[in-house]
Design a protein that fits this description.
By secondary structure, this protein is mainly β. Helices cover about 5% and strands about 45% of the residues. Strand 8 and strand 9 form a beta hairpin.
Length: about 325
């Protein structure tokens, strides 16, 4: 998806009673395009820009789009990152400048690598009445940020756990490993916890973790989350405990990775290392340069999405607190 916030407001976070759990509170953001939808954004923010290499998290829906026509995001660019699309309901048509034409469906990962530069469009299908999912970005380390464009699709199997189910789409968890390669150590999984159940997971103590609340009631290390909140846990723990005190299933996304220590400059849909990087990317996109390629087959009303105007001040890099 295209990030409409060229100069985003900061988010709120709070440390609640529990085993060092910091809760990141989302803000409501309109997603760009002729048919905008509202998303809940938890990353990035001042207090925490990344969890591992996960640098951007939008959570949306369930939203009735039967009348509005749903999502329609015209071709737009990315650099220096990967996009991970994950749906709970609905279907989105993806086209990119590699020539990929793929569908984003519930329980299936679409992972696009921008690297040096890519363009893509996203349009919900005509039969989609409800859109519900997440859009995630993964920062590429400096040595790989100019890598070639790529696209991977993976439908992880449903894994039965005591009192829960899981789909592991990146990394390893509960004895299963995703075959999708990553440029830094990462974890991405959907977990559904049954009513009244407690799930204790063995996790890598070198990872920091985030638990994004979707539906139902869930606690992380005893800390309750509201819909769209993201619980952050620092490296060090070898076990992660989730509990569902409610009467309906609770669903979360579990994100993790080793701390990403490089400074990043993030603006619009670009990830770089300096203000000058961003200015270069924007100029290339506005000129429709070969760096990003062309998206074929997009049927929307706008041929491509122009970039916002750069701010009058130099864009500062983002990094996590020490």
């Amino acid at each position: 998806m295209s990030n409409t916030e060229a100069d985003p407001a900061e988010l709120l976070c709070s440390e609640r009673p529990g085993e060092g759990v910091i809760v990141l509170t989302p803000r409501d953001v309109p997603l760009g395009g002729p048919r905008a939808i509202r998303v809940r954004r938890t990353l990035p923010q001042r207090q925490r820009s990344l969890i591992g290499a996960w640098c951007f998290a939008d959570h949306y829906g369930p939203q009735d789009v039967s009348a509005s026509g749903g999502m329609d995001v015209a071709p737009h660019p990315h650099t220096g990152l990967q996009t991970a699309s994950w749906l709970f309901s609905g279907e989105i048509e993806h086209r990119d400048s590699i020539g990929t034409h793929a569908m984003v469906r519930p329980g299936e990962l679409n992972l696009m690598t921008a690297g040096h530069g890519i363009a893509h469009s996203e349009v919900s299908t005509p039969d989609t009445a409800t859109l519900h999912g997440v859009q995630l970005w993964i920062a590429l380390p400096d040595e790989h940020r100019d890598t070639a464009r790529d696209f991977r699709h993976y439908a992880p199997p449903l894994l039965d756990l005591p009192g829960a189910t899981a789909r592991v789409f990146l990394g390893s968890l509960a004895g299963t490993t995703s075959p999708v390669p990553a440029f830094t150590p990462l974890l991405g999984a959907e977990l559904t916890v049954e009513p009244g159940a407690t799930l204790a997971l063995d996790v890598d103590p070198a990872f920091e973790h985030g638990v994004l609340q979707d539906i139902g009631s869930v606690t992380v290390a005893g800390v309750a989350l509201d819909t769209g909140e993201l619980a952050y846990l620092a490296p060090g723990a070898a076990r992660l405990e989730l509990a569902n005190p409610g009467t309906e299933p609770a669903r979360v996304l579990l994100l993790g990775g080793t701390p990403f220590t490089e400074e990043l400059v993030m603006w619009w849909n670009f990830v770089g290392r300096s203000h000058d990087d961003i200015a270069e990317y924007r100029e290339a996109w506005q000129a429709q340069a070969d760096r990003f390629g062309q998206v074929e087959g997009y049927q929307g009303g706008t041929a491509w999405l122009p970039a916002p105007t750069l701010p009058q001040v130099r864009i500062k890099p983002r990094r996590n607190p020490s």
